C-alpha cells in the first residue's frame, strides 16, 4: 500500500474507462473526476495494518471509526482534508451541490474497497443490472464508480506474471510485518498472513 499502488490503480481505472465506451458514455464529468480521485486516494496514509489488526489492538482509529471499515474511513478523511486544503481547494470551481455529490461518490467508492463490503457491492451492482436500471440513475452511476475502483484495486493477478510476482512479494512482506507486530503485542494473526515460509521459498 504505497504511492506505486495508488498510481497503478489510477492507471487501471483510466484504461478501463477509456476502453469501455458504454461505461464512459454513462458518466458525467463529475463521475469521472470522483472515480479518478478515489483511485489515487483509496489507500492514502495507509498504516500497513489491516482492519482486523485495528479491531484487535483497539487502536485510536478503530475507536474513532467504531471498528467499521477503519482504514477506509481514514483514507476518506485524509482525502477530504486534502481536497479542502487552502493550498489546493480542488473543488472551488464547482457548486456546493456538486461538491457534496463528488465527496459522496469518492467516500462510497473508497469504503467499498474494504473486502468486508465485497459481497454487498456485488449484490448492489447485480441488482441494478438485473433490473435493467437506467444507466443515468444516480445510485447506479455511483455503484458503477465503486465497482470499477474495486475491480482495479484487485487486478494484480491479471498483470503479466513478472509484475504480478513483484506485487505478491510486496504484499507478502507487508502481511508478514503485521504478523511480527501482532506477535509482539500478543494479538491473534491470520494464518494466511504468516507467509515467511513462502518468502523463503522465493
Looking at this protein, list some descriptive labels.
single chain; 202 residues; mainly alpha
What are the segments in which pLDDT stays under 50 over at least 5 consecutive residues?
none
CA radius of gyration: 18 Å
The dominant shape is globular
Average pLDDT score? 93
By DSSP (H or I, 4+ residues per run), the number of helices equals 11
Helicity level:
55-70%
The H-and-E topology, N to C, reads as HHHHHHHHHHH
N-C termini distance:
21 Å
Strand content: under 5%
Strand segment tally:
0
Biggest sheet descriptor: none
Estimated structural class: mainly alpha
Structure summarized in a few sentences:
The protein is mainly alpha-helical and 202 residues long. The chain is built from eleven helices and no strands.
Structure description:
With 202 residues, this protein is an all-alpha fold. It is 68% helix and 0% strand. The chain has 11 helices and no strands. The protein has helices at residues 3-19, 21-26, 29-41, 51-57, 60-64, 70-83, 96-111, 118-130, 138-153, 161-185, 196-201. Helix 3 (29-41) crosses helix 7 (96-111) and helix 8 (118-130) packs across helix 9. The longest helix is centred in the C-terminal third of the chain and has 25 residues, at 161-185. It starts with a helix and ends with a helix. The mean pLDDT is 93.
Describe the secondary structure blueprint for this structure.
Layout: H1 3-19, H2 21-26, H3 29-41, H4 51-57, H5 60-64, H6 70-83, H7 96-111, H8 118-130, H9 138-153, H10 161-185, H11 196-201
Helix pairs in contact: 1-3, 1-9, 3-7, 3-9, 6-7, 7-9, 8-9
Amino acid at each position: 500500500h504505497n504511492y506505486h499502488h495508488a498510481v497503478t490503480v489510477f492507471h487501471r481505472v483510466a484504461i478501463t474507462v477509456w476502453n469501455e465506451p458504454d461505461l464512459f458514455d454513462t458518466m458525467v464529468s463529475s463521475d469521472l473526476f470522483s472515480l479518478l480521485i478515489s483511485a489515487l486516494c483509496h489507500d492514502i496514509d495507509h498504516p500497513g495494518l489491516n482492519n482486523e489488526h485495528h479491531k484487535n489492538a483497539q487502536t485510536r482509529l478503530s475507536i474513532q471509526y467504531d471498528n467499521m471499515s477503519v482504514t477506509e474511513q481514514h483514507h476518506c478523511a485524509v482525502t477530504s482534508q486534502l481536497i479542502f486544503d487552502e493550498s489546493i481547494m480542488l473543488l472551488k470551481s464547482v457548486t456546493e451541490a456538486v461538491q457534496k455529490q463528488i465527496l459522496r461518490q469518492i467516500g462510497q467508492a473508497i469504503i467499498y474497497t474494504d473486502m468486508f463490503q465485497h459481497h454487498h457491492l456485488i449484490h448492489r451492482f447485480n441488482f441494478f443490472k438485473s433490473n435493467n436500471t437506467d444507466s443515468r440513475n444516480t445510485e447506479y452511476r455511483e455503484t458503477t464508480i465503486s465497482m470499477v475502483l474495486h475491480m482495479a484495486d484487485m487486478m494484480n493477478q491479471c498483470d503479466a506474471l513478472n509484475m504480478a510476482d513483484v506485487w505478491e512479494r510486496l504484499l507478502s512482506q507487508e502481511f508478514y510485518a503485521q504478523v511480527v507486530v501482532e506477535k509482539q503485542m500478543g494479538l491473534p494473526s491470520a494464518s494466511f498472513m504468516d507467509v515467511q515460509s513462502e518468502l523463503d521459498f522465493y
